[in-house]
Specification:
heterodimer, A: about 120 residues, mainly beta, seven-stranded mixed sheet, four-stranded antiparallel sheet, B: about 110 residues, six-stranded mixed sheet, 12 strands, about 55% strand
């Protein structure tokens, strides 16, 4: 595998389900990101991790719970979601978060539908 | 607050015609600037980036962009568009420790 991979690519879940999204980067980067992309809305940054430590939480509801066990893996745990959470969830990685090192590389995304 | 503006939501060009997608940024300092492309159902792919130096940067797939400080712009250009260029294009600016993305421009190519 090369670049940034995300699984699953598509997910349909009910509002009472618990599921997880997985992201893995094979680029040797130290920073990882979760973004939400909804129709007709700008890309929304959700979380930033740098060297496994969360450095940004962009006022994301607690029904989204990120986990970063190491610099190569990032998870987004989902529970009791709402229909408005249906979106494309994108993972990205970069060498770091300092100025000049945050050129980001994106995975293909997980298309989430909440029913 | 830092912002990146893409004034055009949709643009339609004929195959073989030239293309220019506009991007304006607002920052106090010179930002790092990027253009990404997204095909339907896919992630974002980096086309090109500007950090410093030569204000005309070359990217992949025949794209180029020019940084103009006086106009706070970083417009994306391509001399001859191919049908496969139809996609959504995002301009982004790096400030502090994160990227700020524009709302995107959807490019349609007509044959």
């Amino acid at each position: 595998e090369t670049g940034v991979t995300q699984t699953p690519r598509h997910l349909v879940m009910g509002m009472t389900n618990k599921k997880s999204l997985k992201c893995e980067q094979h680029l040797g980067h130290n920073a990882m990101y979760w973004y939400k992309q909804s129709a007709k809305k700008p890309l929304e940054l959700m979380f930033v991790y740098n060297f496994k430590e969360q450095t940004e939480n962009n006022s994301v509801p607690s029904r989204f719970s990120p986990e970063c066990p190491n610099s190569s893996h990032l998870f987004l745990h989902l529970h009791t979601l709402q229909p408005e959470d249906s979106a494309l969830y994108l993972c990205a990685s970069s060498q770091g978060t300092a100025r000049g090192s945050y050129e980001q590389y994106f995975g293909p995304g997980t298309r989430l539908t909440v029913t | 607050a830092q912002s990146v503006t893409q004034p055009d939501i949709h643009i339609t060009v004929s195959e073989g015609a030239s293309l220019e997608l506009r991007c304006n940024y607002s920052y106090g300092a010179t930002p790092y600037l990027f253009w990404y492309v997204q095909s339907p159902g896919q992630g974002l792919q980096l086309l090109l980036k500007y950090f410093s130096g030569d204000t005309l940067v070359q990217g992949i797939k025949g794209f180029e962009a020019e940084f103009k400080r006086s106009q706070s712009s970083f417009n994306l250009r391509k001399p001859s568009v191919h049908w496969s260029d139809a996609a959504e294009y995002f301009c982004a600016g790096g400030y502090g420790n994160k990227l700020v993305f524009g709302a995107g421009t959807i490019l349609r190519v007509k044959s």
